[in-house]
Amino acid sequence: MEFSFGQLEGFVAVAEERHFGRAAERLSMTQPPLSRQIQKLERAVGAQLLDRDSRGVRLTAAGEAFLVDARRLLALAGRAPDLARRIAAGRAGSIRIGFTGASAFGVLGRVLNTIAGQLPDLRVELSEMVTGEQVAALANGEIDLGLARPPFDTATFASRPLHRERLVLCVPARHRLAGAGPVPAAELASEPLIMHSPVKARYFYDLIVRLIPVAHRNVVHEVSQIQTMIWLVAAGRGIAFVPESATRMQIEGVAWAEIDGLPDQPVELNLLWSRESTNPALSTVLAVLE
């Protein structure tokens, strides 16, 4: 089936005017070429779309059905150039964002709300990944933007800070430190510890080892996800060091305590992207998240 948009426009005009003369005038053309357009369209469709008589024109049943799709096709054609321009300008299309599980505790929602508010026509695709997976996905072109933990290869990736927060202590609800004031980091060395994986959660592992005198003989579990750590604490398996945003999780059986002697906001989350990205939406998203 082959037909032109000119034939569709002619058909819609005749269908709406119910008169070839008025339709031709509306399209700034004469009636004979309009009649030929409709005849070619009917041959292409393989069905009679209009009944013509001395009183005017009416749609056949096939014509009524075809009119719906003809209007839809013309509307799409009318929007296509504008859509192409908006995609080229980064205001439409899609962007693929990778995020760490911990960034979902408030930060991710704020990012998505900002994008939706400023770029309502941009589709966002989400993938939960630890930082190492995000780095690989950015390098392979599988995602466009990451919410990741440093450090990064600055030759390959560009980044900028997105969020900073405190490190806090998660303990079982009946633990002696539950509800206590700021706890000196040195007092925690002998506690059973739910620790971040040195492989899959390397950022938090390195951060905690640098800031707190961890006794590795007291590490009872090593996990990659903060949610898992908190559930293990709730089960009484030990204590854990988590970013303050994790306190938003309402998990029964845990309590939170401040840790004395730490830098104010040592936990950081960055926007991360490949310097070779060709997605025009990336620069637009970075601008609205500035």
Automatic annotation (TrEMBL):
The keyword NADP does not apply. This is LysR substrate-binding domain-containing protein. InterPro entries: LysR_HTH_N, LysR_subst-bd, WH-like_DNA-bd_sf, WH_DNA-bd_sf. Residues 1-60 form the HTH lysR-type domain. It comes from the Bacteria. PROSITE patterns: HTH_LYSR. Keywords: DNA-binding, Transcription, Transcription regulation. Belongs to the LysR transcriptional regulatory family. It holds the Pfam family HTH_1.
